[in-house]
Amino acid sequence: MSKNELTSSGFDTKEIVFEEHYVDSDTAGIKLYVRNKRRKDHKTFLAEKTIVMVHGATFSSGSLYDVPFNGMSFIDFLAHRGFDVFAVDVRGYGRSTRPPEMQAAPDLNPPLVATDTGVTDFATAIDFVLRLRDLKNVNVFAMSWGGTVAGAYAARNPDKVVKLSLLAPQWLSDVAIPIDQGGALGSYRLVPVHAALARWLGTAPEYARERLVPEGWFDLWAALTLSEEPSQADREQGKLRATNGPIQDIRTYWRAGAPYYRPREIRAPVLLLHGEWDIDVPLDLARAYFEQLTGASYRRWVEIGEATHLALMESQRMQVYSEVARFFEEDFKPE
Fold first, then answer.
1. Are 51 and 325 in contact (CB under 8 A)?
2. Is 31 within 8 Å of 96 (Cβ atoms)?
3. Does the global pTM surpass 0.90?
């Protein structure tokens, strides 16, 4: 989006209220970081205008949803459209408390923060939002591993979810899943943040790599992502600690033909978004997941051309932003 387009859209970050909350989890000493953005003139809090987000298996909600590319993040965009947007970091991610085992060497403990924990933390965040805004339900957005967390939550709590939007959620796979590099899993892994660019661009055709991530965007994203790493030594080396519970669950569920939850048990309307060049959740997996959503009151698939697994942070990001906003805004009921 160009500077002129930003101006013509009327977007102004000074119109947005940004609040931070630290919410008690179900574990003593563990607090969950929840960011909230809304317009300053947003005074009436309604379920259909409230969104709660959760991140994927490696990067936090701030890293995925709140980097201000060209001065505007995904959360900013939704807030400007009139939504009250909350995004939680599961324990061990972003600005939430790290489990004490993450201070030790990774080979001293088993994989941390399994999907069960993610669902529990997400439920805690949603309950916090419901109390804060005096609501009975909310809209939900998530991507990748977060899609499993949010999908499982929606299946188990149909009364608390108005609509569900998922970008590239996990599903069963009979081939290796790229995020799982194989070998023994410690409690966490060290992710070289600056090395992510080569892998990111490498998932797109060669002819499109130069325009996939506009100039300056990766550096901005990397700086924000590393700023949330509490270990100064890791931060200075450009590394991020990411828990391995989600990777273990790839082996326990998605590569073992044993789904963590049943998508057909989701009752809310569902929007599934997928990037054309996503190798982490290939087209056939996304299609198979979509076919499982037989219990949804209605379901919709949107394929984003020339986009990878990280479509929210690429040159085609406005397609994703707009489709998500439109889905949550619409008052559509099947006949």
1. no
2. yes
3. yes
CATH number, domain with residue 106: 3.40.50.1820
Angle between helices 115-133 and 145-156 (to 10 degrees): 60
Distance CA 114, CA 195 (A): 25
Contact status, residue 87 vs residue 61, Cβ threshold 8 Å: yes
Residue 334 lies inside a defined structural domain of this protein: no
Residue 80 lies in domain: 3-329
Phi, psi of 326 (to 5 degrees): -60, -45
For CA atoms 149, 122, 203, 312, give the dihedral sign: positive
- Residue 210 is encoded by which pair of tokens? 């130069």
- Number of CB atoms found within 10 A of residue 205's CB: 10
The DSSP symbol for 47 reads G
Q: Which single residue is written with the structure tokens 């924990």? A: 117
DSSP letter string, 310-324: TGGGSTTHHHHHHHH
Q: Model confidence over 114-159: pLDDT tens digits?
A: 999 999 999 999 999 999 999 999 999 999 999 999 999 999 999 9
